[in-house]
């Protein structure tokens, strides 16, 4: 049994931090795309047009019912056979965004439906249009409601970036694998990789908690103001 070799970590820490930076960048890109897709699909799922609701349901079921790894393989390895060729970075962000979008769509839909109906009726009685009610009343309150489950999805997204190594992207896990192949020190390297993933997820959780506190208060104040204006 050998001793824990800290010199390996000192030597390879720059490479691991570089991989961590790539992981964070792909997480941000995938989350941004996923939020756009998720919000669009959530609105489609709540519309009165049946075709849009069906399309939203098919998308959510198809993406949530298949592994992210398979989706990445289809985008990067299979899509070129039908003339849709993507670079590894494009396939990575697109795959993460499409996958996260399906889960975020359900989170957003549930959050919008959970907004108290009297708040919506109060906004409409003040003459706000459907779009204005959605943007000023429903979505701000929904954001406060969905932040906790969103935090879980963001953490899952960070961990899901580890699959990007399968399409030749040098993320944190890939950097760790390279380091292990050179140093033959899996304990030291993989332990540090795990600690770096944990540090990112703890920081994200703390950030979401702060956003939840600030956004929730603002949304409640706006709802109370609207209710007061109509005498409810």
Explain how this protein is built.
- The N and C termini lie far apart (72 Å).
- The protein is mostly helical and 232 residues long.
- The chain is flat and about 70 Å long.
- The protein is built from 8 helices and no strands.
- The chain has one domain: MetI-like fold, CATH 1.10.3720.10.
- It is 81% helix and 0% strand.
Give the topology, please.
Layout: H1 6-46, H2 50-64, H3 68-78, H4 88-113, H5 117-125, H6 130-160, H7 172-183, H8 186-229
Number of helices: 8
- Return Rg in Å: 22 Å
Name the beta content range: under 5%
Shape: flat
CATH architecture group name? Orthogonal Bundle
Name of the top-level CATH class: Mainly Alpha
On the 0 to 100 scale, the average pLDDT is 86
- N-to-C terminal Cα separation, in Å? 72 Å
How many domain modules? 1
Low-confidence stretches: none
CATH superfamily: MetI-like
Order of helices and strands: HHHHHHHH
Question: Would you tell me which CATH topology applies?
Answer: MetI-like fold
Helix/strand structural class: mainly alpha
What is the helical fraction, as a range of percent?
A: over 70%
